[in-house]
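Troubleshooting entry. Yesterday's outputs looked truncated, so today I'm pasting the complete records for two proteins to confirm everything comes through intact. If either block looks cut off, that's the bug. Protein one:
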Amino acid sequence: MLKITTVRERVNPAQKKLGGVCARAAAASARSADEPCGPNPAATQLTETPWTNFLPAAMTEFWLISAPGEKTCQQTWDKLMVATSRNNNLSTNNKFNIPDLKVGTLDVLVGLSDELTKLDTFVESVVKKVAQYMADVLEDSRDKVQENLLANGVDLVTYITRFQWDMAKYPIKQSLKNISEIIAKQGTQIDNDLKARASAYNNLKGNLQNLERKNAGSLMTRSLADIVKKEDFVLDSEYLITMLVVVPKIAYADWQKMYETLAEMVVPRSTKLLFEDHDSGLFSVTLFRKAVDDFKHKARENKFTVRDFQYNEEELKADKEEMTRLSTDKKKQFGPLVRWLKVNFSEAFIAWIHIKALRVFVESVLRYGLPVNFQAMLLQPNKKNMKKMREVLYDLYKHLDSSAAVIDAAMDIPGLNLSQQEYYPYVYYKIDCNLLDFKLCVWRENSGINHHHHQQQQQHLQADDGDRSTGRAAVEDPGSSSRRRRRRMKRRMMPRLC
């Protein structure tokens, strides 16, 4: 088995596995007692650039990067600050604290790196689904949504910039594989619960909307149950029947003149205006049952619309009771559902940021070797200077990867369909907190609500995902990704292998 080491210190050949204990011991021996390098769970004091106010949604893109430690990690941090913040205000920077995690073997790290890529994508999608469904439940009230999109009781920017590893949820004594499995199980549980709760709530909401829709719209289509009364009809008569007719407002006078002559057996002076909207009015008229067909035919010729309606008190009462029940049930479910969404959004978001921390740790060890000696840093680039920011970081860290240094930043890598912009000589992952721009409605698939609208959204999302994933598919393909990453890591770390 090949073992990872660095040019500074070679690992004893007897160590066939790089367990967490020996990795942390090696890391500790390489650090200064006064200047902790790399991950450090005890580093709770914030010495980074302060964040003043809540950032607007359009400015909540962060770059999580890492670079190998110099003599001390503070020197790595100082170099970044000088290059990006103190002189030219390209970004606002914070240290990103990652604890001492167990390392393992090269093969384990390479395989885990591929798995974490997929897990990152999955948990991010869960975070965005929960956020978007909260917006749907709160009916897109942005202020209310933002009030509930919190992580550990604080806004997302504050949580990320002051990130501390949750030792209780994700014990660092566990292997990296076990920690990733804990997060995967947590994300799957939230995703399944969301689908079930959303399906139930959407069905309830849809049934209520269907009833409400019947009581809305024009007189040509809407339900008449809440308009008419029992006294408007001749009931229980063997010979007489009351008809309901929709008459355009401009034809009121014509109706009054001719309704008695539309059939031979219309009761004189029996018409009555029951209700009107902005276009038309609903009139009642009483006639003999055997004249109904003739009356309908003549009314249609004169552009009067006869509504097929039979007054049934029991059915009307049942409809009103059903609407009341659905409305009450919706109110009962609303509060607990919002609370569940709030709690589980926090859980999913926290898990997602821990995945980012895991990815930085794994990738940093693979790139920079052992002992663990890197500084993780959180950058929020100035939106106007993002291109300049990339150039500065490239100049600062291009010596870390000679293969990246010789390739033009705008050039595509042949055969991979992967832009060089997605691979940098330093470890890099993006964190986008603008969660409501990405709409997923997976929970609607089972509920049947707004199916056509859902299909349109899914088509749009697939096209959008295709645009954003151009080149990434090759990276995330399990077979090709693993083989390519192994070759790249072994080439890069050959001087460090013993």
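Protein two, checking that the full record survives here as well:
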Amino acid sequence: MMQWIYLTLTVLGSVFPLAQFVPWLSVHALDLPLLLAQALQTRIAAFAWADVLFSALTVTAFAAYEGPRRRVRAWWLPVICTVTIGPSCGLPLFLFLRERAVLGR
């Protein structure tokens, strides 16, 4: 049961952030100086980005440690998703893969 909840959260954790980023990207292309300027424009924006970055670091460390230990196949895929989409995608994807490994599927 939990594996399907994790999979649903993976999809939602991809769709919601990308729904904000893709329109910005279509207007500004990959303007990294502008992205950084807007990310740090206010304290609340900087807070949100700091939270995302530290969450991404935590998800990456967790997957890199727990994945091989639990024999999770493709444990590196959530790391790639965390870096490219965000921890809202990477963490539930890793939990989905880990749940499948624990259940022996």
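Both blocks look complete. Sanity check on protein two: The helical segments are 2-28, 32-39, 43-69, 76-84, 87-102.
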